[in-house]
Specification:
Elements: E1 7-13, E2 18-25, E3 31-36, E4 42-47, E5 51-56, E6 61-67, E7 73-78, E8 85-89, E9 92-96, E10 105-108, E11 111-116, E12 119-124, E13 130-135, E14 150-154, E15 159-164, E16 170-175, E17 190-193, E18 196-201, E19 204-208, E20 214-217, E21 223-227, E22 234-241, E23 244-249, E24 252-257, E25 262-268, E26 272-277, E27 283-288, E28 291-296, E29 301-306, E30 311-317, E31 321-326, E32 329-334, E33 339-344, E34 350-355, E35 358-362, E36 368-372, H1 376-385, H2 389-398, H3 404-412, H4 416-419, H5 426-435, H6 439-449, H7 452-464, H8 468-478, H9 481-491, H10 494-506, H11 510-520, H12 523-532, H13 536-545, H14 549-561, H15 598-604, H16 619-622
Antiparallel strand pairs: 1-2, 3-4, 4-5, 5-6, 7-8, 8-9, 10-11, 11-12, 12-13, 14-15, 15-16, 16-17, 18-19, 19-20, 20-21, 22-23, 23-24, 24-25, 26-27, 27-28, 28-29, 30-31, 31-32, 32-33, 34-35, 35-36
Helix pairs in contact: 1-2, 2-15, 5-6, 6-7, 7-8, 8-9, 9-10, 9-11, 10-11, 11-12, 12-13, 13-14
């Protein structure tokens, strides 16, 4: 109970009466609220003296005090399952934790070593055996279990460093029994003050003392060397390897050489909370509250990933993939900056080891959990980055990677030919096929979509590749008469040029007729067209220039009768204008050769559909007389052979 006498009283009671057991003194104003912690032997109280106090029930003394400057506290509530408390004050409400929920752990060979309920335990991944190695003392004045902030283990010497936040920062050095025989007895340890402590050599460890000096000590806890950090604001040490340390100061991290007593590299980064080295020490992950920075061993930044929610932990899968956990996700980051989500989480976990698709982690209860996750996407991106194309192909064949994200990633990284194998949407396939120059697949998609815009794009792309047979089909589908006529000119297809001339005449396309007559070298047709269009002088000079004497005389009489002067010949020795014969007529032009890469050759497996020179797009397939509604001519279909009745038969278009 709490009352205006400024005291918290502990009572014992039965069905009929209650009697006072003890009194907890410390508040200096009226006690507003008091309650029991649901899981620990603690009492929490608050008061109008602007403080919240935590009391040890067994020792009957205060162990923690929280204060606010300007607000009196009035009410308390404690969460029945999680480590959360809420307190109402004059200005609002605060929600806080009594202690760290992250278990202190460190990876060891084949397992993980961690602290749980005053015991140092080891867990073997292979056998799944959880062994209590030894018990450790209670930390500081705390009546609850010792809450270690971090642990570091020296496997060569079986020495353990345990760091606490109590008493302004302290460390304890233990000798760990190999077989756990002394697990029931508290081990004697060497203690000292310091904000952090890590091993720096086989028989040496470094401590950052309260004066911000680096002390190198032996296992007898004796100082053997002192070093001044490069920055006075240094507040934390992280392990690197023999003779090296990482120092945190404000928003930078420094690589410190203990022998030379100087920083050999620095990197600007948000305040680092945890450091994780890859197995071969070639890369390091620097974890801050909302970011992961990946750097090499020279502390040169390779990439950075920003998160909107807190990052909890991480571990390396090999030397090129870093897997980390946030409050509600497990994610990955490659050394080239690619990242993604592996799975969601119901409760936060702290990753201790990642191997392939298996993640070992600890939960907030200090239990080691094993999760099997799908890392296909991560391995796929890593294989692409390392250009291990055979493995990429194997992943494509065996997995079901899909979605717009993986397609966008492949396009961004310059692998549209790989993205083709992940899409079923025809428009997306068409876009990717055009991007990577795969005319075969682009033609298949264009035929399925049958839109004018796609045929335009396909025609332009096929022209770049010299695939004039596909270009011809595209121009036919879009009814692009001018381009189609010019294509027949370039390929020397005189028969189809003559048909194009007839089509232009039937469509009353004057310019189309003139161009086709020009391409064919058909002077009489041009003279006839000019006369029909009323250009008698042009018709006369054309007939005169090309030696059509009879037509020239008839036209001169018309000009004289109309009172118009006769044009003078343009050249004293005119020559016949006729298109040059093309070098290649039947086969596609060898202008642009796109060789099939590893993906196309392997995935196609010898079978490929599409339009090549031998894939069935011959003259019969694209002949103007044979184009039905799918050919795109619509109501303009013509019976060019004069058989009658065929002109309107091709519906659709």
């Amino acid at each position: 109970s709490g009352a205006d006498d400024r005291q918290v009283k502990l009572w014992r009671m039965n069905e009929t009466k209650a009697w006072e057991v003890d009194t907890l003194r410390g508040h200096i104003n009226n006690v507003s609220c008091a309650l029991f912690h649901p899981k620990q032997e603690l009492i929490i109280s608050n008061s109008e003296d602007k403080s919240i106090r935590v009391w040890d029930m067994s020792k009957r003394q205060g162990v923690q005090t929280f204060r606010r400057e300007h607000d009196r506290f009035w009410i308390l509530a404690v969460h029945q399952e999680s480590n959360l408390l809420a307190a109402g004050h004059d200005g609002g409400m605060i929600v806080f934790k009594l202690e760290r929920e992250r278990p202190a752990f460190t990876p060891i060979s084949g397992g993980v070593l961690f602290v749980k309920d005053r015991y140092v335990r080891s867990f073997d991944y292979g056998s799944g055996k959880d062994t209590a190695l030894m018990s450790i003392r209670r930390s500081g004045n705390s009546g609850g279990p010792a809450v270690a902030r971090s642990v570091h283990y020296n496997e060569q010497e079986n020495m353990l460093l345990v760091c606490h936040d109590t008493d302004g920062g302290s460390y304890e050095l233990y000798s760990v029994p190999r077989d756990g025989r002394s697990s029931d007895q508290s081990q004697e340890c060497k203690r000292g003050a310091g904000s952090s402590a890590v091993f720096v050599a086989r028989q040496r460890f470094a401590v950052l003392d309260k004066n911000r000096q680096i002390l190198i000590k032996n296992f007898q806890n004796e100082v053997t060397k002192k070093c001044a950090p490069p920055h006075a604001s240094t507040d934390c040490l992280f392990p690197v390897g023999t003779g090296m340390l990482l120092l945190r100061s404000e928003e930078r991290i420094s690589l410190f050489d203990v022998q030379q007593r100087k920083a050999v590299a620095e990197l600007s980064t948000p305040a680092v909370k945890y450091v994780v080295w890859s197995p071969d020490n070639s890369h390091v992950a620097l974890l801050s509250k909302h970011g992961v920075v990946i750097a090499n061993k020279k502390l040169e930044q390779l990439c950075m990933v920003h998160e909107t929610i807190r990052i909890k932990s991480g571990a390396w899968d090999g030397n090129e993939v870093f897997v980390y956990s946030t409050l509600n996700h497990i994610k990955y980051c490659l050394i080239n900056g690619d990242s993604g989500i592996i799975r969601t989480l119901d409760v936060p976990v702290y990753i201790s080891r990642v191997s392939g698709g298996t993640v070992h982690c600890l939960d907030r209860e200090g239990k080691v959990r094993k999760m099997v996750v799908d890392v296909t996407e991560c391995q796929f991106k890593l294989s692409l980055h390392k250009k291990e194309f055979e493995r990429v192909i194997r992943i494509i064949k065996q997995s079901r990677l899909s979605g717009h994200a993986i397609i966008a990633y492949l396009q961004k990284k310059g692998f549209p030919q790989v993205a083709l194998h992940f899409v079923s949407d025809e428009q997306t396939r068409f876009n990717l096929a055009v991007e990577c120059g795969n005319v075969d697949i682009a033609l298949q998609a264009a035929q399925a979509l049958d839109s004018k815009e796609n045929w335009h794009r396909l025609g332009a792309e096929a022209l770049k590749h010299g695939n004039h047979q596909v270009v011809e089909m595209a121009y036919q589908r879009t009814k692009d008469m001018e381009k189609l006529s010019f294509l027949y000119l370039m390929t020397g297809n005189i028969d189809k040029l003559k048909k194009m001339l007839k089509i232009a005449e039937m469509r009353s396309d004057v310019m189309g007729r003139f161009h086709n007559a020009l391409y064919l070298g058909d002077v009489p047709e041009r003279v006839k067209l000019l006369v029909e269009a009323g250009h008698i002088p042009l018709a006369y000079i054309t007939a005169l220039t090309y030696g059509l004497t009879e037509q020239a005389e008839a036209l001169s009489q018309q000009l004289t009768a109309a009172g118009l002067p006769l044009p003078e010949p343009l050249s004293p020795a005119p020559k016949m204008l006729y298109p040059a014969l093309p070098i290649s007529r039947d086969s596609n032009w060898p202008l642009l050769t796109v060789s099939k890469g590893t993906f196309e050759r392997t995935l196609a497996g010898g079978g490929g559909g599409g339009a090549t020179a031998d894939s069935g797009l011959g003259d019969a397939g694209l002949d103007l007389d044979d184009m039905d509604g799918g050919g795109g001519w619509g109501d303009d279909d013509l019976d060019l052979d004069g058989t009658g009745g065929g002109g309107g038969g091709g519906g659709g278009g």
